[in-house]
Amino acid sequence: MPYILISTQIRLETGPTIVGDEYSDPDVMNYLGARKTTMLGNNFSEYHVDDPPRVILNKLELIGYRVVGMTGMGQTLAWCLHKETM
What we know:
This protein is α+β, with helices and mostly antiparallel strands. The chain has two helices and six strands; from the N terminus they run ββαββαββ. It has a three-stranded antiparallel sheet with strand order 1-6-5, covered by helices on one side. The protein starts with a strand and ends with a strand. The model has no long low-confidence stretch (mean pLDDT 90). It holds the Pfam family GFRP.
């Protein structure tokens, strides 16, 4: 999958960070040290890490991902990353 969306709450900018959904590449999630969780009341899963977004962005850059967009929505910060496919 060439795209990844990561996000965090502004008040939690030191972590945890949401790094993927239930369809994310398991190899990338394992590399990030992410754990798959389902919040009570949700019918979907997300991958979380305790690291702050900066650490995750650095790790993803090392394996070829680049930030293509970033935004703030209410109390949430989100980054979209892309990796060129061969």
